[in-house]
Amino acid sequence: MAQVSELPCDGDGICMLCKEKPSDEDKLTCVTCFTPWHVTCLASRPETLASTLRWECPDCTMPEDCAPVAVSGGDVAAGELVASIRAIEADESLTEREKARKRQKLLSGRVESSDEEDEMSMKKKKGKEKVEGGDDVLKVVGMGLICSFCMQLPERPVTKWIGQGKNTCAKCRRSIPPKMANQPRINSALVVAIRMAKMSKSSDSSGLEKIQHFVHNQNRPDKAYTTERAKRGGKSNAASGKIFVTVPPDHFGPILAENDPARNRGVLVGDWWEDRFDCRQWGAHLPLVSGICGQSKHGSQSVVLSGGYEDDEDHGEWFLYTGSGGRDLSGNKRTNKEQSFDQKFENYNEALRVSCKEGYPVRVVRNLKGKSSNYQKSYATSFQIVGNLVLHVKKECLMEKRTAFRHVCVHECSKGWLPLPDELSHKEKRSAYAPENGLRYDGIYRIEKCWRKVGKQGFKVCRYLFVRCDNCPAPWTSEEHGDKVRALPVISELKKATDVTERTESPSWDCDEKEGCWKWKKQPPRSKKRVTASCPQDTEQEFKALRKAHKKSLKERVLKELSCFLCGNVMTLPLTTPCAHNFCKSCLEGAFAGQTFERERKSLGGRTLRAQKNVMKCPSCTNDISEFLRNPQRGSSIRRKKMRKLVVKGLVMRRDRILHPGTKKNNMPHPQAEELKRKTNDASLLIEQEPERTSKRRKIDAEDGLSKIDAAEKENDEAEAAMDEGIDSPSSPLNVRSDEDIQ
DNA sequence: ATCCTTGATGAT
DNA sequence: ATCATCAAGGAT
């Protein structure tokens, strides 16, 4: 075919005709479309130096009345991008990881300080996906996307597009050389750029490189979820869901209704959660693993009481708490109960001491640790009440009994503080106040004293006396009122204690004698953190954040232009409709799968009338793009009648087109690539289950040989295949296959 | 007992 | 900002 006799170089600089990579001297770049051509393979070469500089490729050779377009750096920049990427790929001193990092930096790298877009404050903001940034890609890709005709950033990343019958640029309306219009090709350099963008995107989520992956609260699901990074699913390795309450992470005191926009009730005493994720999401206790929430310079906001420490004593309205640390948790050990060094008042332990000194309110959450449900079912235990504690002695008995015992126990407690006999304390014990299951918010406590003592394991531990001071009664009492001011219990271990700290000034949270309730008597400590969950109506600051979020960054806009309206991903085989909307070829075809271009009409008398054209609206707007779909490359065709029922062709996706970073060069298996392949296979199977269309198409092909569409298609395939081969395995020969080969 | 994970802290 | 470390987690 005459049209295919002359071909330019592809995105890898390989001549699509001779498959060789010409040197720079052997290349000629078209002044109009900036496509490089292999001089040796040209039918007619420019004679003079002057004509070389003004050389137009065979595609762009225009009639005399069409003036040539001024040269811009547009595609040169695109070439630079490709060259940069090639340089990275060719650099043998770099590991794959480093290459990925460099690619990432090139395509979606960090925001430069010279950035004019208002991104400086944005980038300061924590909790952003890695989508942000990427001025390098703007400078390079953005320039590369400048329309060869109108010198503007194109709205559509297809290099050559044809208006419906009018050969004009969709944006600038300048006329496009008719030959170029007749033989539109996908811009190979752009395809490379898009590919690389895809690669950087997929390496982002595959965790090939360590990239901090913040997910902003509003983008989190309501429930805990498994991240891309997690190798094992389920709750054991899950990430937290959305935070529902509008308190900052370092909020002290109860969580009120005003901070609970979702329910407008706040966190109430007795509120129950299945796991630490739920507990976190409602703001009662934020850390997922740690039992203490706090900062050494700021104070402690909450603790979880779960019986993990054998020194702990739980008496309901008051308890003795043990600090953290002292255990060797190196590696992945998280369950080492053996203490191997002394605890000190630092980090979390110091945070608790600050709350003690200041008299801050500390939220207390009780937890039934371990396999609570299993415990209830199989560890049916008999109990012995010793003091105010329920000791597990034998494995028999039912839960009901336990509840009953607890009731007795609580009843005993209400009479006064009963110390636990020391001789029994080493036995397995479980707090009578722990919830049946999961975690329960038990209200506000104050840390009245703290000290250090030698623990049961022989090393020093930090100790804290927590006393309840909540306006609501504890979950285990039938009292109508909250806590009263009561005398501190006598703590026998204080005799041997060291580093005793007591509050010297009046507490921040105290009982108001007049009002008879607990409240802030001093200004609560100023939060040093931002509210996680945003309530946009709250402050001007929030408004600003909201406005910023709505304001699309330049990067996002470019990315948007590179993405398909239908699948939302960066385009594969980008196509642009006459109404100037972008789609992956396969997506656009899929959208009209099974539809015919025309429908037959029957008159009342049963006589067949002329077929009526089916309107096929652009998925993005209301324009009828049936003409474009009929022949995306050439507009109308003389074979219209014969192709009457031909549906949009090429519906079988080509598996060999799927390109992924993991399959590059080394051909290492890549999980995402595998998955995509699988998906593609599934898609193919689905499509292949439509025999009618396939057979019709075959019939047409048999009649006419390759249809015009196929010819154009094949040409694009060649360009694509060349691209693919160039990237995947530069040495392998071109492997052009028709769709039939795949089936 | 062991593994794999999250998210906050605090040192740098 | 970045990063090692820590934490009373949750499954196998």
Protein traits:
Herpes Virus-1, 20 strands, disordered C terminus, alpha+beta, 19 helices, single chain, 9-stranded mixed sheet, DNA-binding, 3-stranded antiparallel sheet, PUA domain-like, 743 residues
Short description:
The protein has 743 residues and is of the alpha+beta class.
Could you describe the 3D structure shown?
The chain has 743 residues and is of the alpha+beta class. Among the domains are: 60 residues, Zinc/RING finger domain, C3HC4 (zinc finger) (Herpes Virus-1, 2-Layer Sandwich), CATH 3.30.40.10; 202 residues, PUA domain-like (Roll), CATH 2.30.280.10; 61 residues, 2-Layer Sandwich (Herpes Virus-1). It has 19 helices and 20 strands. The strands form 6 sheets. Strands 3, 4, 5, 6, 7, 8, 12, 13 and 14 form a 9-stranded mixed beta sheet that branches. A 3-stranded antiparallel beta sheet has the order 9-10-11, with helices on one face. A two-stranded antiparallel ribbon has the order 1-2. Helix 3 packs across helix 5 and helix 3 crosses helix 7. The protein is elongated and about 105 Å long. The two termini are 26 Å apart. The C terminus is likely disordered. The chain binds a DNA duplex (12 and 12 nucleotides) through helix 8, strand 4 and strand 5. Pathway: Protein modification; protein ubiquitination. Pfam families: SAD_SRA, zf-RING_UBOX. It is found in: Nucleus.
